[in-house]
Design goal:
CATH topology of one domain: Rossmann fold
Distance between the termini: 44 Å
CATH superfamily of one domain: NAD(P)-binding Rossmann-like Domain
Number of strands: 15
Radius of gyration: 20 Å
CATH architecture of one domain: 3-Layer(aba) Sandwich
Structural class: alpha/beta
Order of helices and strands: EHEHEHEHHEHEHEEHEEHEEHEEHEHH
Helix content: 40-55%
Shape: globular
Length: about 350
Amino acid sequence: MVRKVKDSTVVITGGTGSFGSTMAKHLLSQSVGEVRIFSRDEAKQDAMRHTMADPRVRFFLGDTRDPESVERVVRGTDLIFHAAALKQVPSAEFFPLEAVKTNINGSANVLRSAIENGVKGVVCLSTDKAVYPINAMGMSKALMEKTAQAFARDYSDCDTTIAITRYGNVMYSRGSVIPLFISQIRSGKPITITDPTMTRFLMSLAESVDLVEYAFDKAKTGDLYVRKAPASTIAVLAQALVELFGGSHNEIQTIGSRHGEKLYESLLSTEERAKAEDLGDYFRVPLDSRDLNYSEYFEEGELRQASLESYTSHNTKQLDVEGVKALLLTIPEVRQELGR
């Protein structure tokens, strides 16, 4: 089935977040027919309504946990970008069942409604924390991925293509460390670093949109896509921001890792890397389409490339201070902060 943005009706769940607002602006530039913003935050919806002021954007108040509100927004839709999730590690750690209700059950509601309404494509957004998860948020997102793959497997003969994208922390997204460091530098407060050797992928919001759009355009049902990205240590990132924003007088404090926080981000496990297709700027991991009659596990076995490592922010390309500064200057919000 042909999947295209032009003149289509597109739903963005969790559409008032950093990704959702960026994706909405991108879709409007691509001659989309209608963008439906679906979220439960009426204040953010009102702010977004005034900011965008485009008649092609419609707002639907609801929650992915509620099948009726999901059905209301999905009916008549061509494409869904499913970004709604509980993303804060501490919140999910103390209230894991809430993460289950939104990240797993809510995703199942979106996928079920998409299939029942003949939606052409669904792209589910996931996170590095789903790889070798050590916290409840990562575990719930890993099960979201498994749920999406199960729907793709069970409904492989239907018209709905289901794909998954996975990426790490996005630079300058809501709640990320870059706005925090800039605020600390400008206010003269100490720059608080959890662990200077900790590494993180460096991906912009625009690149996350590119990844999701690539998956929408290219995916076979059940595919998982990862965009390759450089990384740096937190110490290098902090130093780059100090040099850009003149924070040489700010004290740098190492406060230690937070509960449930990893030393590095993983975007592909060793097992996924072994069967991933290298597409240049992206990795594609195809769906394991076996059913419960999987003789391969018990009789035939599977050959793997033992030399391949998991794909992490430790073993990807590492940027130095000048490289991070150059990358930061490509982010519109950073340039705006600098008055450029």
